[in-house]
Write a structure and sequence with these properties.
3 helices; four-stranded antiparallel sheet; signal; 26 strands; about 10% helix; DUF4185 domain-containing protein; Tachylectin-2, Chain A; single chain
Length: about 400
């Protein structure tokens, strides 16, 4: 447990570091080279076009929040009670057969006490939760064994857990689950900021969640951190990233995500040059979502400064690359009213478990004081919110 405070808070702090960085407004479109590819106009994945989403309204999804709470309190699906207890991350992916899995980052493992405290929890950097088709978790998947669990994936060549992976989004491509993983390692900086992003890999899992392949992909320190959102549309997988708290967009043809043959949005066209990527919109969280819905693309995000701004925002765009409308604040995380609690961060949308006309999103909760996480597992469990769009009264 000696390493727990640095690592348990790490993903939240990484989001915060990105959050307080200088927000750069979208730059002028770069001059495209001969390898530029004209943007496609296919947005059929968003539904019928010509609609207006209306006014977004958000409400807590108490049922799903409580399902994760009960799952963690009961041992995370393991008979020894040492499965998932709490974590951040919380990305969802639909597998073949309409099965849902949750991709989790820093994970506390049970048992959880009757008062929801944790006396001596296990800790790993990543886990996967299987779920029913409604998203309610059923079992915890890790590497190792139930008696000696290990992170679901680790970078090749890691020594004593350094570097490690923090996952972002995942998607099924080529019939296999592929998950973006941020390679993260210790630095000489003073705690708790003594870690940094080293690069990005895509981990391919077998049907039984064993690591089948690790592919180095685009992204390096100082550049765009790709993969915090993946959206399939019009024969492409759109890959969203963040740099200096601004959104960037790339895409790969369906079936070719790991081929490292992406195209990057320059502001006016698609280019095969990753250095030509241009910011689409600023002031996004380290994790955000762009979801096809109601004939548009719905952005759900925090602001960049998660330490001071505790709201979730919604904007819409007619294409996967914007332009995004003025944002509407739809939800304020009540957990942030408690001293030391950090919320919301790592907003993620879950369209595969959303009903028609709604969008389920999640956000993470953490604490600046490690003891808070041990005192109450709920201080590190996801919260869920349902967003619906009400017709604008001005339109009749």
């Amino acid at each position: 447990m000696n390493a727990f405070p640095r690592r348990a808070l790490g993903a939240a702090l990484l989001a915060g570091v990105a959050g307080v960085a200088l927000v750069v407004p979208p730059a002028a479109a770069a001059t495209t080279s001969n390898d530029a590819v004209k943007p496609d106009s296919v947005t059929s994945c968003a539904g019928p076009t010509g609609q207006r989403s209306g006014t977004p309204v958000a409400n807590e999804d108490e049922q799903l929040t409580q399902a994760f709470r009960a799952f963690g309190n009961s041992g995370g699906g393991w008979s020894n009670g040492r499965g998932w207890a709490a974590s951040d991350g919380v990305y969802s992916t639909e597998l073949p057969g309409h099965r849902i899995v949750w991709l989790m980052n820093d994970t506390f493992l049970g048992p959880v006490n009757a008062d929801e405290s944790m006396t001596d929890p296990g800790f790993i950097h990543g886990s996967i939760l299987t779920a029913d088709d409604d998203g309610k978790p059923t079992n915890t998947i890790t590497a190792g064994t139930h008696d000696a669990p290990e992170s679901i994936a680790s970078p090749p060549g890691a020594v004593n857990g350094d570097p490690w992976y923090w996952n972002t989004d995942g998607i099924v491509d080529g019939g296999l689950l592929r998950v973006f993983q941020a390679r993260t390692g210790q630095t000489d900086d003073p705690p708790p900021f003594n870690f940094g992003w080293l690069g990005t890999d895509i981990v391919t899992y077998s049907a039984d969640f064993k690591v089948e392949k690790v592919t180095h992909t685009y992204g390096k320190p100082g550049g765009v951190n790709w993969g915090n959102e993946l959206t399939r549309c019009g024969g492409y997988i759109y890959i969203y990233g963040v740099k200096d708290s601004a959104m960037h967009v790339a895409r790969a043809r369906v079936g070719h995500l790991i081929d490292n043959d992406w195209q990057f949005w320059t502001g006016s066209a698609w280019s095969t040059d990753p250095e030509s990527s241009t910011a689409v919109t600023g002031d996004v969280g380290a994790s955000y979502s762009v979801t096809p819905m109601n004939g548009e693309f719905v952005l759900t995000t925090t602001s960049a400064n998660i330490f001071l701004d505790h709201q979730i925002y919604v904007a819409t765009a007619p294409t996967p690359v914007g332009p995004f409308t003025h944002r509407t604040a739809v939800y304020t995380a009540p957990e942030a009213q408690v001293a030391n609690i950090l919320a919301p961060y790592n907003v993620a949308a879950h369209p595969d478990i959303s009903k028609p006309g709604e969008l389920i999103i999640s956000y993470n909760v953490n604490s600046l004081v490690g003891a808070d996480l041990l005192a109450n597992a709920n201080n590190n469990r996801p919260r869920f919110v349902s967003i619906r769009f009400e017709p604008d009264r001005s339109n009749g």
